[in-house]
Amino acid sequence: MNAKDTYRYHDMLEGCRQLASHYSFVTVYEIGRSVLGRPLVALRCGRGPRKIHMNASFHANEWITSALLMRFIGDLSASYASGEPLRGQEVAELCGEVTLWAVPMVNPDGVELAQCGVNRSNPWYEQLIAWNGGSTSFSDWKANARGVDLNDQFPAHWDEERKRRGIDGPGPRDYPGPKPLSEPEALAMARLTESIGFDAVMALHTQGREIYWNYRDYEPVEAEMLARRLGQASGYKPVKLSGSDAGYKDWFIQYFRKPGFTVEAGYGENPLPFQNFDNIYVELQPLLVEALRIGRHRPS
């Protein structure tokens, strides 16, 4: 990872292949397909009854989160296999209690656009350039291949988010789509979440070194305390957020009334330079370990 300045879809797939081939601890599943037909991959790690979910790259230009999550799964797997503790945690013991379900790249089409631009073989070539204001540079692109912001796609006061955004058509960011879950990537995430029944979820974004833990007072009573634990582990600031709807963690909190978090990793201007990867990961790794402990001491 450190010798490169990008982390692309094929890097993620190769990482999944290597993890699954080296560690029986890791199982790879296809949970759907992107707009352009790329398989959406989930990794299952552990065997415990508590189910924790983490995802990355809902937003295309936040692709560094995919590399961060894959590094964590690699560290978790290596610690499990070797018996060496991870941040003082015996991983075999922890993963006898918890199963991690990770989707390391929710938006592969957008990630490829953000890093490589648009190829003439893309069926939306002309439209994408038009949606991008005529520019062939897509480094600031957040949306999927149809110009829809996947983190504005969930049925949690979606219509209010649509009105607040005030964007009526596809573009680089903030277009919620024609209706909730219109995009195959968002629909795949919703179906996975409903089918597994996660006890808590965490969506990795960039940037700001903040943790968002609430949604319209639907969150469980322990959510703020858990956010403080995550903040103490990482140095990130727990923030009670308002004026935002239709995100993945918003929907999870509203519909399941369980802990959900958005973590804004790193600090700077998106896309964060890959040279910052190691510094971001040093802060993020203990937060992710702590997230796997959620549910161990829930209040009665």
UniProtKB/TrEMBL annotation:
Pfam family, one: Peptidase_M14
UniProt keyword Zinc, yes or no: yes
Record key words, sorted: Hydrolase, Metalloprotease, Protease, Zinc
Gene Ontology molecular functions: hydrolase activity
EC code: 3.4.19.11
Protein family: Belongs to the peptidase M14 family.
Stored CDD domains: M14_Endopeptidase_I
Cofactor: Zn(2+)
Protein name in the entry: G-D-glutamyl-meso-diaminopimelate peptidase
Organism: Paenibacillus harenae
Residues making up the signal peptide according to the UniProt record: none
Catalytic site: E264
